[in-house]
């Protein structure tokens, strides 16, 4: 009797978490666990902003790690390829790779992540990744007046990295709201983010929009309201991500997605109409901020629930995660004029809402960018 395939599409935090969980529990005499990802390695996006700025060779070795050590005792198979479509039924189906290869599945996990703009927008080929990093770095090196379009975590952290490397470059964050970040966080946290940025000499232009969709060199640029940034010579997109779910709409119809393109799921992270298809990570419709730690929690629930589904026992609901955010402002060097004010922020939505201050951002993230946790997760 041939083995039935458990196929995971996407090797980010959610996909790896699900794969690790299932490699421990699956009966590998009956099931073949397959993880599919376009690149032969996982990218630790949290550290790539610093990498784009510094081109640090040591960091480069640590943020692109392969999948060869994620399966317990080798109980799993990695396939390098881009899934371009899938067929679904309540008894199973198949996924089709860009190469034309088809892989049947008994159970499918959709964890293909998000699409980005600007520095985190990595192509799906190794040569493309290298060219992308080189291109972004070259543009940053040559620029004197940089405009970052989007004042969420990516914009704030990239601005801090630029100021670390090139203190004399002019950096402006343009953000379409009255405060940085988004309304999921209290105003006091958003104001703290602004204070941390301006303490580094980063300019803020709030309640303004720039319609330029690309990261490109410019000779001045205007906001949507007509405000002139005459000396700007580089625009960098730092807007938030969008779910990578086009193939889901094509396979299951637009009704399977929300108006924002997120996959509709039950509390068990199964799709509404399919018991044998699960989803996790940035692609799902769940009222919480999209973050790596939450995607990993989704993957753990999905792994446990797939095993429960196979064992014909009740599945567990995902109950959400505590909202939190830790934002760096560069490396938090002791040479900063006001280390406590200049080096980031941390907020946890527990009790009345706890702000731990820049000291926590420095301790938890600023220096290491959580790379040791990523390496451990990948088995390195």
Q: Per DSSP, what share of the residues sits in E-state strands of 2 or more residues?
A: 15-25%
Radius of gyration: 21 Å
Could you give the distance between the termini? 36 Å
Largest sheet: 6 strands, mixed
Structural class: alpha/beta
* Extended strand count: 23
Calculate the mean pLDDT score and round it.
93
Helix content: 25-40%
Strand order of the largest sheet: 5-2-1-9-20-19
Task: Write structural notes for this entry.
The chain has helices spanning 13-25, 48-54, 57-63, 126-142, 153-165, 187-199, 246-252, 292-311, 339-342, 358-366, 371-377; strands at 4-9, 31-37, 41-43, 64-66, 77-80, 83-87, 93-97, 102-105, 107-110, 114-115, 145-149, 170-175, 203-206, 216-217, 221-222, 228-229, 234-237, 242-243, 270-271, 274-279, 324-327, 345-348, 354-355. By secondary structure, the chain is α/β, with parallel strands linked by helices. The strands form 7 sheets. It has a 6-stranded mixed β-sheet with strand order 5-2-1-9-20-19, covered by helices on one side. A 5-stranded mixed β-sheet has the order 13-12-11-17-14, with helices on one face. The chain has a 3-stranded antiparallel β-sheet with strand order 6-7-8. Helix 1 packs parallel to helix 8 (292-311), helix 2 (48-54) crosses helix 4 (126-142) and helix 2 packs parallel to helix 5.
